[in-house]
Design brief:
Elements (H helix, E strand, L loop, with lengths): L12 H6 L5 E3 L13 E3 H5 L19 E3 L1 E3 L26 H14 L6 E3 L5 E4 L5 E4 L26 E3 L9 H10 L5 E3 L1 E2 L2 H13 L7 E2 L3
Parallel strand pairs: 1-3, 2-4, 3-5, 5-8, 8-9, 10-11
Antiparallel strand pairs: 6-7
Helix pairs in contact: 4-5
Length: about 230
């Protein structure tokens, strides 16, 4: 029985298409020791649609996977014009036509929605501490900008069927989770007990406040922005 794999970002998809009993797939770091194993899969590779019909190609592990920790990159985000420090920036991935980013969002959600028995979903990675040559510890923040918005406008509601989801990690991702997304998660993910990585500012702060006041079963520890 296949339990867990670490990958380097090259050729990840064959693990999903070749192992019908895959239960856990982890590529995101929890500790500095794991950092070299961090990598991402491109959104187009993740979607994996039939070139003729446009429908998603079935993966044999869709009913067995319960723990997925993976960074999905390459999603156009024309809405991001400044980085987390307020500096003006250009989109990491440009749209080739208007609306492409939204289309890719929807297809990525559709693929995630097929893992109906997911209990743990990490799309963001934690910060970690790296030893400098002089042995000082330096905190490294692995921000994601070409990632899922996790907003209802972008298609989050396509994940309605993940009824067994218990832990969601969106640490260091440029998401747009606000109060209405928090309400939706509390309603449609009845076993959700933790949202990891909500920042203590903007829409995310409102989401955390709503969770605290209305859904005490869900823990939402905030992520420092610096």
């Amino acid at each position: 029985m296949v339990k867990r794999y670490y990958q380097d970002g090259v050729g990840m998809r064959p693990f999903f298409t070749s192992f019908p009993r895959l239960q856990s797939f982890v590529t995101l770091a929890e500790t500095e020791e794991d950092y070299l194993k961090i990598n991402a899969i491109d959104a187009i590779d993740w979607i994996h649609q039939d070139s003729l019909s446009g429908s998603l190609t079935p993966w044999p592990c869709e009913y067995t996977l319960t723990d997925l920790r993976i960074s999905i990159c390459g999603i156009p985000r024309p809405d991001i014009t400044h980085d987390r420090k307020g500096r003006k920036c250009h989109p990491v991935v440009e749209e080739s036509y208007p609306g492409e980013g939204r289309m890719i969002h929807r297809r990525v959600y559709e693929r995630l929605a097929r893992f109906v028995n997911l209990e743990v979903l990490w799309l963001g990675s934690n910060s970690y501490y790296s030893k400098e040559p002089d042995m000082r510890s330096r905190k490294v923040m692995n921000h994601q900008y070409e990632c899922l918005e996790m907003s209802l406008e972008s298609g989050l509601d396509r994940l309605e069927g993940l009824k067994r989801l218990q832990v969601l990690n969106i640490s260091l991702m440029a998401t747009k989770i606000g109060q209405k997304e928090a309400q939706w998660m509390a309603e449609y993910w009845p076993k959700l007990r933790e949202i990891r990585g909500l920042e203590n500012r903007g829409h995310a702060r409102k989401a955390r406040q709503w969770i605290k006041e209305n859904s005490p079963r869900i823990s939402a520890p905030f992520l420092p922005t610096k």
